[in-house]
Amino acid sequence: MYTVGRTRAGSLWLLLLLLAVVVLAPSCGGWRAENASTAEPGQEASTDVVVESSPLPSWAESASRDAVVDFVARVTDPASPDFVPEAERIATFDNDGTLWSERPVYFQLLFAIDRVKALTSEHPEWKDQQPFKAVLEGDMEALAEAGERGLLELVMASHAGMTTVEFEAIVEDWLSTARHPELDRPYTELVFQPMLELLEYLRFNGFKTFIVSGGGTEFMRPWTEAVYGVAPEQVVGSSIKVEYEARDGEPVLVRLPEIDFIDDKAGKPVGIHKFIGRRPIAAFGNSDGDFQMLEWTTGGEGARLGVLIHHTDAEREWAYDRNSHVGSLSRGLDEAAERGWVVVDMKNDWLTIY
Amino acid sequence: MYTVGRTRAGSLWLLLLLLAVVVLAPSCGGWRAENASTAEPGQEASTDVVVESSPLPSWAESASRDAVVDFVARVTDPASPDFVPEAERIATFDNDGTLWSERPVYFQLLFAIDRVKALTSEHPEWKDQQPFKAVLEGDMEALAEAGERGLLELVMASHAGMTTVEFEAIVEDWLSTARHPELDRPYTELVFQPMLELLEYLRFNGFKTFIVSGGGTEFMRPWTEAVYGVAPEQVVGSSIKVEYEARDGEPVLVRLPEIDFIDDKAGKPVGIHKFIGRRPIAAFGNSDGDFQMLEWTTGGEGARLGVLIHHTDAEREWAYDRNSHVGSLSRGLDEAAERGWVVVDMKNDWLTIY
């Protein structure tokens, strides 16, 4: 009776391990085009978007924009056969690669590595102990040898053991100081302006917007409201277990080094069901990790919208899909047309990236 | 790494077993006072409550009503030092015994027993197999002998194996036809009118209202919006695991006979954290199963409200607390005063019950 999906969790950690190897490799800068021409370091992520007069101003006139606007028009028009009551207008968004960038690797992995480095003084034993030694020395071979178990130790050491309040402060502190290793900008400035407009446009039209991400729920909640306008209670992600206890007489929730839920692939419809309890009518992703979320969303009756963000812009962001080590998109591209999913061409469909 | 709280889950099932024994006992009618004088069979549960002119009309002028109104005034007045921004006005409500009645036992257990009886024709083997035989024959002794494991089988047989859509229909069908064994009214008419007014009053004042119940999430979600005005995505409860798969080429979520989460006692702050991600500023319960939820809620900084509904009305509902087999309230009564929690005396503080 008491089991969890070892295989699914296992494959995620294996993926993360590969990513760790990738991000720590000295040549990782090479995966990205040199010239991020529109990147302006001082630019603030903002949800203050005027949607009434000109919805989606950062979107080019394109088939993908028209598909989105047409869908919204149909489900919000009471005279339309596709009308959907406001309470049922649920839209779900992947985060990494859909709302913000995910190169050279998921930003949360960069956070984990920074945390391990920051905690070294409290853990002098790490300098002789794998996989920490490998991280501290940038030793890729040793990290690879530490395997899945090693990466799990890495993540748990950086994400567990503290209270939820302490972890929130750690995330906030990191986000306010850390900068992207290649673009030299705060991570919260690497959110996609067209998607901010889309979130706001949908909410303006009575949608409830949720994040449904493979990333950590508690890594996202501290900042999604300020950056995306998505409240903590509308963030669904992967999680570790927490336990309620008293510390110095005060009740606290302590983060435990045990996987609770992996919100990826077939886990996304499960997460949607667990946390939202309704089938979305619109879903937005960018990788095959989002396939089942789009399948579940668009498989329902009535008007449905499935959108894949295709990373095609090597100049302004990154260009990648089928063979990417992160955000791989292959089955989605193969089946988008027959399933009626919209594929957004970032290079041609977006006037602005960040 | 891969463990779940056997002990906590175990104690819940043990409790349920005791309840099963209780509900099936021939004399269970004796736990309730005879005369439910205000019960009107035709009365509909409704959230259409006018709150602007006279908030909480079903509440008597009382210290408990004043405490609630005073709290709401303080956290919503921008000039008050206790002002709380709207986004942080999270209020959580237990369900059984707080929003609706819970006698003679939790209504969900009556549902499980009805389901087992309804499924008998598909399971001819049950007439010779415990614990089903015991349910079908009303054999309390045999049911008790089947123990915790037996009750788990009972619940899983009635709650798992079908798709989430099928289960939702089963719950809706049951609620539309089943009647309370003593009051002979639909269960959805056994919701507390003063609490409906309170939910609406809080929402009118910018609160987001959540249910945080030990009952099954998916047993509640099909009807909480219509009955309480609480959307499915704002219902937190106990759950079993679900799995995403294809059936006849269609994606479905199938309910598995495995515990996922028990939202009771110390599990309530955990559930609040998992599903809401913010610490509530107000919490409402009625039993010691809500103790930690109130402790967590009122232990935060700033103005906080903790409320216990005390079942004191043997005429119009049921009178019980410390030694009750269901909804036992003992530690809460002992510590309410020192913790500043409000205890609502149903008999004297509520003009109307249902």
How does the SSE layout of this entry go?
Two copies of one chain form a homodimer.
Chain A: H1 6-24, H2 63-76, E1 90-93, H3 107-118, H4 132-137, H5 140-159, H6 164-177, H7 193-204, E2 208-216, H8 217-228, E3 235-247, E4 250-261, H9 267-275, E5 282-285, H10 291-298, E6 305-310, H11 331-339, E7 342-345, H12 346-349
Parallel strand pairs in A: 1-2, 1-5, 2-3, 5-6, 6-7
Antiparallel strand pairs in A: 3-4
Helix pairs in contact in A: 1-5, 3-5, 6-8, 9-10
Could you characterize what this model shows?
Two copies of one chain form a homodimer. With 354 residues, chain A is an alpha/beta fold. Helix content of chain A is 39%, strand content 15%. Chain A contains twelve helices and seven strands. In chain A, strands 4-3-2-1-5-6-7 form a seven-stranded mixed beta sheet, sandwiched between helices. In chain A, helix 8 links the parallel strand 2 and strand 3. Chain A is globular and about 65 Å long. The N terminus of chain A is likely disordered. Chains A and B meet through helix 8, strand 3, strand 4, helix 9 and helix 10 of A and helix 8, strand 3, strand 4, helix 9 and helix 10 of B.
